[in-house]
Amino acid sequence: GFFASMLPVLLVLVATLPLRDPSKQHAFLQLLRSDSRVETILWITLAVTLFAPLTEELLFRVILQGSLQSRVQPAYAVALSAIVFSAIHGWPDSLGLVPLALILGYVFYRRNSYLAVVILHALFNLTNLLMALSES
Question: Which of 24, 136, 113, 7 lies closest to 66 in space, CA to CA?
């Protein structure tokens, strides 16, 4: 799931580069640009690799997708939860996150595992954080 998500997300992110405004980057990326102390990096790492995946996967996969799957076909449940997940991340980041969200939804549907999607999400976020740190 992790490797399957990286290429589509990168392609969409590259395609949306003209839409990106550095002043509207995610708050964590803005914080990293302005404060690169070790403590800041550690807190952001903890937030993006533990707190965000645990919270978001509980909300979007377990609760939302799980309840939708009992009412509609799984493909619709995966798609709807992916759209909502992506949308909460704001424009234009939401476009790049659609492939990841669809893969997370598919993995959750096939494995019915909260742990699997949390790990996948955490790896994705860690990879993006490491790329952001290497730019600065």
Answer: 113
31 close to 45: Cβ distance less than 8 angstroms: no
* pLDDT at residue 17 tops 80: no
Write down the pTM of the prediction: 0.88
Buried-exposed string 88-126: b where 16+ CB fall within 10 A, e elsewhere:
ebeebbbbbbbbbbbbbbbbbbeeeeeebbbbbbbbbbe
C-alpha 94/C-alpha 72 separation (Å) is 24
Residues in Cβ contact with 108 at an 8 Å cutoff, skipping those fewer than 6 apart: 57, 61, 62, 65, 78, 114, 116, 117
How far is CA 53 from its chain centroid? 8
Nearest CA among 44, 52, 50 for reference residue 27? 44
Query: What value does the mean pLDDT take over residues 45-53?
Result: 96
pLDDT tens for each residue of 51-76: 999 999 999 999 999 999 999 999 99
Joined tokens for residue 34: 């302005």
